[in-house]
Structures are given as structure tokens and as C-alpha cells.
Amino acid sequence: MSSLAPTDRPLRKDAERNRLRILDAAGELFAQRGLGVTLDDIARHAGVGVGTVYRRFADKELLIDALFEQRLASMCAIASAALEQEDPWDGFVYFFEKGSELQARDRGLKELLTCSAHGGGCVTEARKRLRVLVTEVFDRAKAAGVVRADAEPLDAPLIQFMVGAVMDRSRDVEPELWRRYLQLVLDGLRPCAATPLPVPALGVEKLDAVLRRPAPR
């Protein structure tokens, strides 16, 4: 039995090394090009055969789960830090600014936050944790009277979706342009001189239905 062990150990090291190469390659491609990249794309970028990718991750959703659980945890950390800001409005702005900065650097994360069709169980649970924290950020700001009363926590993904559209369109021309439109949105969320909204916020089921829809071509 002992004569087999030296042969087994390098295989395990190779498998782990390949797994890390796949995750690094997927992280780079997802950040640059979004979640539409294929496992074939990832295999080429990692310098491994596509069969190696499938042995580690049977489908792309498993790979997304493995890669983005921690990145969603970073969004949760931003929301938690927003709640620690002494001023509720500063915390509200902090969440959207820092969260948007993270998404501007990672197109895959942006798409994951604005499309609930991607990801498995780990991503789903991370999204739930984030939704709870975002609700607290909104509720705290509304209770302090610094955010308009008809703004709802479930507006947040669609705000991110709108700002994200600017990121995508202007990335190669003026990559910081999204900051201008985020500021316009934030000013529109202040209670002073707010025009009553003509349509109510979506509920959870309708929001998820919207976020699952593919972008029109």
C-alpha cells in the first residue's frame, strides 16, 4: 500500500493546482467579460483541457458558486460598514458608492447582483444575507428622515442595474462616468422636493422575475 502513496500525492497536488488555475482564470474572465464566458473560454485562459474544468466543476453554476460566494461576502461587508457610519445618510451613500466601485472592477459580480438566474445554493444564501443588510441600510436612513419615504430596499438591485448599464456603455470611453449618474440617483432619493413615485416598488417575487430575465438583444 505504501508504494502507491507517492504516486497519489502528486496527483492530488496537480488536481489542486489545476483547480486554482481554473478559479484564477474564471475570476479574470468574469471580471473582464461578465458571466457569459463559457467553460471552454475558461479552460483556454487557464491553459488546461476543458475536460479538466468539467472534472472540477460539472457546470458553470458550480464554478460561479465557488468563485463568487466570497465576493458577495465583500458586498455584505460593505453593507455592514455602511450601518456602522454615524450618519445614516453617509452610510446610505457609502453602501452605493463602495458597492458600485466593487462592481465597476468586476463585471461578473455586477451581473450576479442584477440577475438572479446565476449561481447555486451558496450564491443564493449570500444574496439573502445581503438583502437583509440592505434592508437595514434603507430602514435606518428612512427612519432618520434622510431618504424619501417611498424608497424601498428592493429598489436597490434595480438602482444598481441602472448604474451598471452606464458602467458597461462607458467602460472603454470614460470608466468613471457611472459616478455622475449614481450621484443623480442618490439626490433623487433624498426626501426634499421629492415628486411622488407613479409606480410602487416591486415585491420580492416580481423583482426576482425581472432579474431572471435575459437582457434583450
Automatic annotation (TrEMBL):
Which parts of the sequence belong to the HTH tetR-type domain? Answer: 16-75
Protein name stated in the entry: TetR/AcrR family transcriptional regulator
**One Pfam assignment:** TetR_N
Q: Which SUPFAM superfamilies match?
A: Homeodomain-like, Tetracyclin repressor-like, C-terminal domain
- Residues in the DNA-binding region annotation: 38-57
Q: Matching InterPro entries, A to Z?
A: DNA-bd_HTH_TetR-type_CS, Homeodomain-like_sf, HTH-type_TetR-like_transc_reg, HTH_TetR, Tet_transcr_reg_TetR-rel_C_sf, TetR_SbtR-like_C
UniProt keyword terms in alphabetical order: DNA-binding, Transcription, Transcription regulation
Name one molecular function that GO assigns to this entry: transcription cis-regulatory region binding
Q: Which domain of life is it from?
A: Bacteria
